[in-house]
Automatic annotation (TrEMBL):
Source organism of the structure: Actinomycetospora succinea
Single GO MF annotation: flavin adenine dinucleotide binding
Superkingdom to which the source organism belongs: Bacteria
Alphabetical UniProt keywords: Oxidoreductase
Protein name, entry field: Putative flavoprotein involved in K+ transport
Organism lineage: Bacteria, Bacillati, Actinomycetota, Actinomycetes, Pseudonocardiales
Record flagged with keyword Secreted: no
UniProt xrefs under Pfam families: Pyr_redox_3 (PF13738)
Signal peptide stretch: none
Length: 428
């Protein structure tokens, strides 16, 4: 076996297909089932932010009847199941990886079903790893039910009463809107976020980003590397814009950032006007960028009048405190952090982030795939992970070809009982 791929989401399955085409023997290990996070860590009404036509994996582009629609979470799972079956991916489901360690024959992957050894390991566990919940969560009153967006499913699953949603990214705003439409009293703690129009000048925003090369822009092309850490743009599936103006009209009560809890009172800062203005400016800049592209390319598309940032008097009037007596639930829409502490190799920086170039690390044979801005802006997207997988597959195949005569190949069998077991290495 030449390689072990860890994770059977879009990144792992794309990697598997690319390795198979190059004749690189491998297995894919998955702690749950194919597309586990899509399957178990999305709310019921979840849809992709990108249109169906932009669902493009290696040899697996969308060909259905609604290219401009938006897949639900269930449809994404079905698509990944079909893709795994179509490509013949050798996925070992129900295998939890506990550690990746250096080994004389490459890398030893320790799992709850036994150890495997291969010259190459591709960590394709994705970008959404461990829920990031701020320390202030420990100060909330005991009567408040707390859950991360990973565990939120539907309004009816929360206890009766008011809800505080913390975080105004796409997940936070989508969930806040859903709760308000369900008749809940909803408060939203707002931090930095970016607005984008759902459609502009006759086309979806992702259509424009695709045409303008925005999604294929590389890390190296950015004047400021920290730009890769900016918040995700707020969008939702469909044709309507999603922003704080819409949520306030639907009854959501906005606040600034949550900065503390004392007893039964939550405190917020006074940054809401600045957060709203910054988000609006992003939408204005995007429209201007599209206008410039249309003029340069001479495209025949509908014109739209210029739109300036909208006034938001409610932002200046936002309450700085909230009595939590009527709040029974807090939904943490505060994103995720990555935990690669189980990868035992000197390839992580002080923040625990992989040090890599296009997924290749300084530890020979160890690769990462599916991370945000791994190489392109779309590296973590269904549409973008394929290009990175193609590049890494070439790297793995080249390393495998150059070293196969000298390495002691560890052979692995899957026993009839369903356990993994390593057989003695073959003689060179």
């Amino acid at each position: 076996m030449d390689a072990i791929v860890i994770g059977a989401g879009q990144a792992g399955l794309a990697m598997s297909r690319c390795l198979t085409r190059r004749g690189v023997g491998h297995v894919v290990l998955e702690r749950g089932r194919v597309g586990q996070r899509w399957r178990r860590e999305r709310w019921d009404s979840f849809t992709l932010l990108s249109p169906n036509w932009q669902t493009r994996l290696p040899e697996g582009a969308y060909t259905g009847p609604d290219p401009d629609g938006f897949m639900t979470g269930r449809e994404v799972v079905a698509m990944l199941d079909d893709y795994a079956a179509h490509t013949g991916a050798d996925v070992r489901e129900g295998v939890t990886v506990r550690a990746v360690d250096p080994d004389a024959d490459g890398w030893r992957v320790r799992t709850d079903r036994g150890d495997l050894v291969a010259p190459a390991v591709v960590v394709a566990t994705g970008d959404l790893d461990v829920p990031a919940v701020p320390v202030v969560a420990a100060d909330l009153p005991p009567h408040v039910v707390q859950l991360h967006t990973r565990d939120y499913r539907r309004p009816g699953a929360l206890p009766p009463g008011g809800v505080l949603v913390v975080g105004a990214g796409p997940s936070g705003q989508q969930i806040a809107g859903e709760l308000a439409r369900a008749g809940r009293t909803v408060h939203l703690a707002v931090g930095r976020h970016k607005c984008l129009p759902r459609r502009y000048r006759g086309h979806d925003t992702y259509w424009w980003m695709d045409r303008m090369g925005t999604l294929t822009r590389t890390r190296e092309s950015l004047p400021d590397p920290s730009a890769t850490r900016t918040p995700n743009a707020v969008l939702t599936g469909g044709t309507r814009d999603l922003d704080l103006h819409r949520l306030v009209a639907e009854g959501v009560v906005p606040h600034g950032r949550l900065v503390g809890v004392r007893g039964t009172v939550a405190a917020f800062d006074d940054t809401l006007p600045a957060m709203v203005a910054e988000a609006e400016d992003n939408a204005v800049r995007f429209r201007a960028k599209v206008d410039g592209f249309v003029a340069r390319a001479g495209l025949d598309v509908p014109a739209e009048p210029a739109r300036l940032p909208r006034p938001a008097p409610w932002a200046a009037e936002a309450g700085r405190e909230l009595d939590l007596g009527g709040i029974t639930s807090v939904v943490w829409a505060t994103g995720f952090r990555r935990d690669f502490s189980w990868v035992h190799a000197p390839v992580l920086d002080d923040a625990g982030e992989p040090v890599q170039h296009r997924g290749v690390t300084a530890a020979g044979g160890l690769y990462f795939l599916g991370l945000k801005w791994l190489h392109h802006r779309s590296s973590s997207f269904l549409d973008g992970v394929g290009a990175d997988a193609e590049y890494l597959a070439d790297e793995v195949a080249a390393a495998s070809y150059s070293s196969w005569r000298t390495r002691a190949a560890s052979r692995v069998r899957w026993s009839r009982s369903g356990t993994l077991a390593a057989t003695p290495a073959a003689s060179a």
